[in-house]
Amino acid sequence: MATDIAAAAEALLRARRERAWLEALPEGARPANAAEVAAIQQRIAEARGPVGGWKVGAANPQAEPGAAPLNVVDLHLTPEPLSASRFNVIGVEAEIAYLLGRDLPLRDAPYTREEVLDAVESLHPVIELVDTRFTALKVTDPLSHAADQINHGALVVGPALADWRGIDPVNQPVRLLFNGQVVLEHVGGNTAGDPVRLLQWLADTGARAYGGLTAGMIITTGSCTGLLMVEPGTRILAEFPGLGSVETAVL
Questions:
Q1: Is residue 204 very low, low, confident or very high in pLDDT (cuts 50, 70, 90)?
Q2: pLDDT attached to residue 1
Q3: Residue 198 exposed, middle or buried by CB count within 10 Å (0-12, 13-18, 19+)
């Protein structure tokens, strides 16, 4: 029996509207593969307004990437505090994002590394706020969580670095502070390895159902810090020496 994509999307959208968190998706509406995950994500994204970016990542440098569209309503370009009331749980990840300065439309031939890099206008430090429409993270099967926009809550985008070609994301230092206290400091940390591979996959495969990638999209390429949970009242600062810093608070 085919998975009920519409029922899955509606259950997740209703959970957002009513703040009635799910133990699991309804029987018959749980995705069985990556294609069904993507179809559920797309229905949710279309219902919530324009798509302004993507999150993309991979479990290791050889793994098939996964992605989720990010709605404009969840993108924050200033350090203004976010209301804790909008979240179910509050997870924090410091990441590196790419802003596209030109389109990468659909085509038959795969995009080369240089073609993708030439489309990038600037690099940005970002903070992803991780959330879930389920009762907790990891409470149900991984594909259902992936269908829930891969646990996305919000993306806080830091200042642009236009002269970014000298940045090596794989060996980029990162420091994460909560309420002024360093909670993590190391080099690298993204399980996917080189994020350019992720951008190529997104342009070639991940964004096909959306007509490709367009100028102005912000693409965040996976956690450099791992997931850290915080409570309301936390001020968050992520520093990437040489790249920049980004801050926010959940109050």
A1: very high
A2: 76
A3: buried
- Complete domains list, the chain, with CATH: 51-250 (3.90.850.10)
Distance of CA 235 to the CA centre of its chain: 20
Query: Where does residue 130 rank: exposed (0-12), middle (13-18), buried (19+ CB within 10 A)?
Result: buried
Query: Would you say how long the chain is, in residues?
Result: 251
- Whether 119 contacts 105, CB under 8 Å: no
Computed from CA positions of residues 12, 14, 18, 23, in that sequence, does the dihedral angle turn out positive or negative?
negative
Strands 218-223 and 51-57: parallel
Instruction: Show contacts of 208-213: CB within 8 Å, 24+ apart.
Output: 208/106, 209/38, 209/42, 210/42, 210/51, 210/69, 211/105, 211/106, 212/103, 212/104, 212/105, 212/106, 213/54, 213/100, 213/103, 213/104, 213/105, 213/119
Q: List, in order, residues 6 or more apart from 233 with CB less than 8 Å away.
A: 84, 250, 251
Q: What is the DSSP letter of 47?
A: H
Alpha-carbon distance of 102 to 223, in angstroms, equals 25
For the stretch 163-180, pLDDT in tens is: 999 999 999 999 999 999
The token pair at 218 is: 């912000």
- Count how many Cα atoms sit within 13 Å of the Cα of residue 111 in the half-sphere of its side chain: 27
